Amino acid sequence: MASDNNTGRGLLLGFIAGGAIGAIFGMLYAPKSGRELRDDLRTKSDGYLDDADKYIEEAKDRAKELINEGKKRSDRLISDAKVKSDELLKDAEKILTDAKAKGNKIIDGGKVSVDKETAKLKSAVKAGVDAYKETKNS
Predict the structure, then answer these.
(1) Cα dist. 2→5, 8, 9, 63 in Å?
(2) According to the model, what pLDDT value does residue 27 have?
């Protein structure tokens, strides 16, 4: 793609240079006086300089447009990336909160089960001690 662009520029510059050289040779071999020839050369060279200035200005304007467009695109990409990263952080925080809640629920459930089993074990130990005391007293 860059090669096509360089080829187009080279072709355009070749046409301009060829036109200028052709005009100069045409004027040199034309049947005019020296003063007329110099005036014609001056007029033509001024015209070519004006054309070259226009081409340079157009190229500068186009370059500025491309740079501004690139900046706008990069700003949009950065903005989109920030939004997506914020969404990912929110999702990660939600997952962490949910995991903590589930963990706390499991821990609380485990504590209740341990308390029940401890109460059962205490009851069993007390019943065993009471049974031992009854058998010893009888």
Answers:
(1) 5, 10, 11, 15
(2) 67
Closest CA to 69 of 77, 53, 56: 77
Cα–Cα distance for residue pair 117/55, rounded to 1 Å: 92
Mean pLDDT by 10 residues, the chain (138 residues): 66 80 74 72 81 86 91 94 94 91 87 86 86 80
Q: How far apart are CA 138 and CA 119, in angstroms?
A: 28
Return the structure tokens found at 73.
């695109």
Radius of gyration from C-alpha coordinates of the chain: 46
Task: Give the chain's domain count.
Answer: 1
16 found inside a domain: no
41 Cβ contact partners less than 8 Å away, ≥ 6 residues apart: 24, 27
Q: Which domain holds residue 53?
A: 32-137
In a domain? residue 22 = no
| DSSP state for residue 29 in the 8-state scheme | T
